[in-house]
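Data availability (excerpt). The following record was deposited with the supplementary files.
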Amino acid sequence: MPTHLGRRKLCPLSRNAWMVGPRSAGLFVAVGILAACARPEVRDTQAPEVAIPSQPPTAAASDTPLSTVEPLASPQGFVLIPTGVGDAGNFFIYAGSIITLTWESPPSGAARYDFVLAPFESSETVVLGSDLDASDGVSAEWQVPEDVGGSLRGAAHFPDGRLIYSHWSGDVYSGEEPPEGVCTLASGTIGALDVFAEPSMESEAFAYLVPGNYAEVLARTVDGWYWIDASTATDTTTGKAATGWGWVAGEYSIELFGPCGEVPLTGP
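Predicted structure:
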């Protein structure tokens, strides 16, 4: 069962915003102005505390022998976050997704490598996944829960009790999981999706769907257009919730969720 990591204070909505909280709560992260949000600052010199087990794990056979490990006074490497919805160190990941976190250039010789999230509104860190064998690289899968908001980094535990972190690797956010049992679409990049009045780029783009919002897909065309319920999009004129239905071009980078193979085809 996903663990809810709490709410956080976020920036107001803009056209280039990510909705990272429940739609009814109206919580948004605005791309490009996140620096103005109130959140604890995480610096490499102020790494979050991670509890070290009373009995350190046994090093894997492939780990570098302890005698060759050089003590490091500073963080090493970065955690790579696989998502196209990101900007300036801020990453939005759709809740329910299973992603692979990878530590690029980790310190060698650790007995365990953890991927650690420091929630903005909690002093306790959360271990998202671990890797006990670095012979094929350091990585771990993470099923993203709802309402995530925190800073991500790696933590390497050594048999002698040392703990070495990666550099700060980004702030990650998620919103609600997509609704079950229906086909929905959402933006797959940092940008909003234009919603057109007709399945044509020449028609009026009367609304836009920001990353983090899901729109129910009602029909699709053979040439890649999706007919959606536009109520979760934003009206370009009023800035409020749009009404009616509209079309999204499949040539844009989109994410599809649910039983989309069952969506009926329409048009000639």
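Summary of structural features: The chain has a mean pLDDT of 79.
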